[in-house]
Structure formats: C-alpha cells, structure tokens
Amino acid sequence: MSEEVMEQIKQQIENNPILLFMKGSPRMPQCGFSARAIQVLSACGERFAYVDVLSHPDIRANLPKYANWPTFPQLWIQGELVGGSDIISDLYEQGELQKLIKAAAEQAE
C-alpha cells in the first residue's frame, strides 16, 4: 500500500464534495454498475467529480483498502463513503440521495 497513493485518494475525497470513483467516464462508462451510478447521479442534477480507476491502476489497487469497500463504483459525499451502485440506486429511489447531493452541492458553493 503506497503512502503517496493513499494521500492522493484522501486529497481527492477531501477536495471534491461529490466524488465518484468509477470504471470509465460519465460519457463512456466501462461497466454496467458505473453506468447505473452515472445515470442516478445525473438525475440528481448537480455537478460531481469522478476518477476513472481504469486510467489510474494505483488508485484502483489501493482505494478498496482505503475505503474498506471492495468494488467500484464508489460514491463519496462530503468525505463519507456512501456506497456502490446498488446502495446509490436504493437511496435515489427512497429520495435520500437527492437530499445528500443537494446538501453537498450547496455547502460547496
């Protein structure tokens, strides 16, 4: 586990109120779970940052250890891990994700 990579991950999470670690990009997701996460996040209507873990193998290898979460995508809101695709979708359907996203976006302004 690289100290530098862990610090980089920490900085990304701290500096982006809404951050999705995903496979691919919002325009070209590289797996169905990432595609679903993008669909749900986009429906919330706020801007968010993303990191393509396929382009950053060091982050892909270390983030599961940092987060204690084995899979991608991973949604982080205000420094807290929300979860993966299923959790994001469930929260969205309950109306909770929209509240979290809106609060994070307002605080970032």
TrEMBL record:
Glutaredoxin domain location: 18-82
Cellular component terms (Gene Ontology): cytoplasm
GO terms for MF: 2 iron, 2 sulfur cluster binding; disulfide oxidoreductase activity; metal ion binding
The keyword Transcription is annotated on this UniProt entry: no
Pfam family of the protein (one): Glutaredoxin
Primary location group: cytoplasm
Protein name: Glutaredoxin
Gene that this sequence comes from: grxD
